[in-house]
Amino acid sequence: MLIGNVGQDPEVRYLDGNASSAKVATFRLATTERYRDRNGETRENTEWHTIVAWRNTADIVEKFVRKGTQLYIEGRIRTRSWDDQSGNKRYTTEILADNLQLLGKKSDNPASQGYQAPQPAYQQPQPAYQNPGYQQNQQPAYQAPAQQDNSSEDDDLPF
Predict the structure, then answer these.
(1) CB 51: neighbour CB atoms within 10 A?
(2) Is the pTM of this model over 0.70?
(3) Fewer CB in 10 Å around end: N or C, the chain?
(4) Which pLDDT tens digit goes with each residue over 108-149?
(5) What does each C-alpha distance from 76 to 11, 32, 73, 97, 115 come to in angstroms?
(6) How far apart are CA 26 and CA 56, in angstroms?
């Protein structure tokens, strides 16, 4: 489990370069540990993690995660090795994201800037059949009470 801030915009790609194949998103996450040393001074230790998200989680990352986004991530550690161009054995450790949640305020997330959630367009359903002898009530079922002027000095509230 990690909570941290994204250090750069995610890199999103497809296996085989084909949009119909599996999507993978990779990004760096910074987690910071704060503590007091023996002298009482506050110290910080920042650790950088490479996060890898696949398929549906990669879709979420592509749409909503940008540099600076605060995230909660649950995942598994995976260490891979390969031989570089000069024949040296190289290793990398990554977190395979199983669960990802956006944290912080919506206004703090750079990916949400300019985004407005769609408003539902609700319309009163019309009956499929209406009895000709039936008079539909023209009054709404609920009316909001008229606003009252609460500036009166003679109310009995103690505050």
Answers:
(1) 24
(2) no
(3) C
(4) 665 655 444 444 444 445 555 455 554 555 554 445 555 555
(5) 20, 19, 10, 7, 32
(6) 13
